[in-house]
Amino acid sequence: MTARAREVARRRHRPIFWWLDYLAYPAMAGVAFVVLALGVVTWLPALAAAGRALDGWRTNGDTSVLTGTFRAFRRYARVLMPHAVVSTLALALLAIDVIFLSGRSGPVALALFMICLGLVLVLLIYHVALAVVAATRPDESVGEWIRGALWFAFGSVTRGTALLGAIVAAPICSLPIPLGPLLFSATAPVLVGLLVLDRTNPQ
């Protein structure tokens, strides 16, 4: 165990520091994520990079989460950008459909609205899982990340529900914090995913 890891372990035995850590470091990763995601299609590699930095803090005590996210981004952008472009287009189309159908009435419109909304949530769960898997297995290929993300997100009701709960709760629970939804809506679900993955043993 490194000196930083020992310091993290020591702080976790002191509740006030533990809670401060779990607010400060996801917020730092959130700042980096927001900056990197300004490229619109760069949000997916930015999310994986934030996950990588948070995983380094959790496992090795590396507190350079802000700069760590920027350092990790280059590698993830190189391999995830094609996936990010397709995902951005898919989410944009579904968002347009949801907005359009929300102003329509009738059973058919309601059914289509619920289907599109469900697909949006499924894609959000999948992409959080993809960021978690890519963060913890940086040396694997994109194909292995995708297979791992599908297994992680949808291979267990418990895991999928935990990810969905984090996605929905993060922006709501962070409302009392200034800029909270902006900083935590992406990084908090990834952090939850990392914690869930710790307790998961793939078959």
TrEMBL record:
Domain of life of the source: Bacteria
Parts of the chain that traverse the membrane: 22-44, 80-102, 108-136, 148-172, 178-197
Keywords noted in UniProt: Membrane, Transmembrane, Transmembrane helix
Name this protein carries in UniProt: DUF624 domain-containing protein
Species the sequence originates in: Brooklawnia cerclae
